[in-house]
Amino acid sequence: MTPRRPLAALTAAALLALLPHTALASGGYPDPQPVTGQRVIHDPTVIKLKDGRYAAYSTGGVIGARLSTDRSHWDDAGNAFATPPSWWYAYNDTGDPWAPDITYRSGRYWLYYAVSSWGTNHSAIGVATSPSGLPGTWTDHGKAFASETTDTWNAIDPAVVRADGRLWMAFGSYWSGIRMVELDRRTGKARTDATVHHLATRPDAPYAVEGPAIVRHGRHYYLFASYDACCQGVNSTYKIRVGRATSVTGPYVDKDGKPLLAGGGTLLLAGHGRFTGTGGESVFRDKGRDVLAYHYYDADNAGTPTLGLNELKWGRDGWPGL
């Protein structure tokens, strides 16, 4: 199965405005930093724009958008696109996009996203560019990479990273876990001769790992991924694990030296208190620090998917914490 579904499938109650929440830590994990305004979000990707504002894009709508001036109060900003590009409908009947990823390079913002249907790896990752990164300014460039039912991977949940002058995209959900391909720096699409590298999986079906994010810190690349089940409101068991490698293509190992290809992964964040099913993560830079963005399902508000933000704290051993 694919573990993602459109936000339209969530209950109406889950789309109600959120109540203010306290910041009491429980279960050994820090609570997310307080945010206000439009906090309903799923699979967030966040960036600080050149104009000083923060933009967050997410699953839901035609890639739902939020804007903030201070990273604390967020306003609804519509959608990346006014209407779904026509080619999306080859992958689902509603033209519904999932799990975007935003980066900036070569004077443009790049937005990657997935289109698929629940329970299939007939999936594609698309790419769009914008001069400002703002909703309504994106030009779609079609498919960057795709998978079919004959493949052993699933082309959703893109995460783009630069390494040693080359451009890479991690992706994957269930099936055989997290994969990676090299992108053409000019087009932003997978190279025609790209090898599909294998970064992480689990030993038993349904191989419940997805949603990669890769960050360089020091001499290592760190692979963050979401493990277990999302999209079930307060019954979600999503949690974020991490491994690292000296090469962007791996092999990745956890803090105990267990390979991520053998089911390893050091636990970074799990559900605690009202903050259930923490996952769908991405990492962005702000004021010289790395910030983890993710969603959780608010147990005090009908399991509403809600924006979580925590600064990463890098230990002397080189491993991230919160």
Report on the architecture of this protein.
- The chain has strands spanning 36-37, 45-48, 54-58, 64-68, 73-79, 97-105, 108-115, 123-130, 139-147, 159-163, 166-171, 178-183, 197-200, 209-217, 220-227, 239-245, 266-270, 275-286, 289-298, 304-311, 313-314, 320-321.
- By secondary structure, the protein is an all-beta fold.
- It has one domain: Tachylectin-2, Chain A (5 Propeller), CATH 2.115.10.20.
- The radius of gyration is 18 Å and the shape is globular.
- The two termini are 31 Å apart.
Top keywords for this entry?
four-stranded antiparallel beta sheet, five-stranded mixed beta sheet, mainly beta, disordered N terminus, about 325 residues, 22 strands, Tachylectin-2, Chain A
Number of domains: 1
Distance between the termini: 31 Å
State the total count of DSSP E strands: 22
* CATH-assigned homologous superfamily: Glycosyl hydrolase domain, family 43
- Percentage of residues in helical conformation: under 10%
Radius of gyration: 18 Å
CATH T-level fold name? Tachylectin-2, Chain A
In quaternary terms, these chains amount to single chain
Which CATH-level-2 architecture?
5 Propeller
Low-pLDDT stretches are 1-26
Query: DSSP strand (E) fraction?
Result: 35-45%
User: What order do the helices and strands follow?
Assistant: EEEEEEEEEEEEEEEEEEEEEE
Largest β-sheet summary: 5 strands, mixed
Overall mean pLDDT stands at 92
